[in-house]
Write a structure and sequence with these properties.
Distance between the termini: 14 Å
Shape: globular
Strand order of the largest sheet: 1-3-6-9-12-14-15
Number of helices: 6
Radius of gyration: 19 Å
Strand content: 15-25%
Order of helices and strands: EEEHEEEEHEEEEEEEEHHHH
Structural class: alpha/beta
């Protein structure tokens, strides 16, 4: 009942399109929890190059993805480097082309408009070709629909769809969500998760509360 080894890059034998993400991440500004996977027949191991966009070290923003997150093919995370300044008459990034156009550019002004880290909680399901915008927090247990564009925070256990993404409904009543967040089964040892899979899959809150 220990489950798969989270240190295995390709956890499905003969199925290389799926990777446990943390094992293929090389950038220090991306953090991924155990058992989170990405599925892509075009090369899931290239996630940080193909799916994390405009992520530049000098901006300091991080992408933080929790445990047991399921990320479908083509989902992307747009980071703060995609932003253009809107404090002047033009949004054109003159400075990046140099040859004198970089003179007078105030980098601090650019940094101040950043939205901070992008954070995806635990046990989140992100649908095919969904797009997560800079500085967004997606709560534990949330579901992001296919092709959704998430430009604002999504609460725990909410289902969000559309462009811009809006909460369609919340998966469980508040009196269920609160203890689920407190229990945080995703932080249990693998053996304990294995012993209680029936309750996790079967939505048996009382068993989870009493789990050993």
């Amino acid at each position: 009942m220990h489950g798969p080894d989270p240190a295995t890059p390709y956890p499905l034998a003969g199925f290389p399109r799926t990777v446990f993400l943390k094992n293929v991440i090389t950038r220090s500004n991306i953090e991924v929890g155990d058992f989170t996977y990405y599925d892509d027949p075009a090369g899931a191991e290239r996630f940080e190059d193909n799916n994390v966009l405009y992520h530049f070290d000098f901006l300091g923003d991080r992408l933080i993805i929790g445990k047991f997150v399921a990320i479908a093919q083509g989902a992307t995370f747009v980071m703060n480097g995609a932003n253009h300044l809107m404090t002047g008459f033009s949004t054109f990034p003159f400075n990046i082309f140099g040859n004198g156009w970089e003179e007078g550019f105030d980098m601090q002004t650019y940094l101040e408009q950043g939205r901070g880290d992008t954070v995806v909680g635990n046990d989140v399901w992100i649908g095919r070709q969904a797009q997560i915008m800079p500085g967004v927090t997606v709560g534990d247990g949330a579901v992001i629909g296919a092709h959704a564009v998430v430009a604002s925070d999504i609460p725990p256990y909410a289902i969000a769809v559309g462009n811009p993404a809006r909460v369609l409904r919340v998966r469980f009543a508040p009196e269920i969500v609160a203890p689920l967040l407190e229990i945080a089964w995703w932080n249990w040892p693998a053996e304990k998760i294995g012993r209680n899979l029936a309750a996790i899959r079967g939505a048996d809150l009382e068993v989870l509360k009493a789990a050993r």
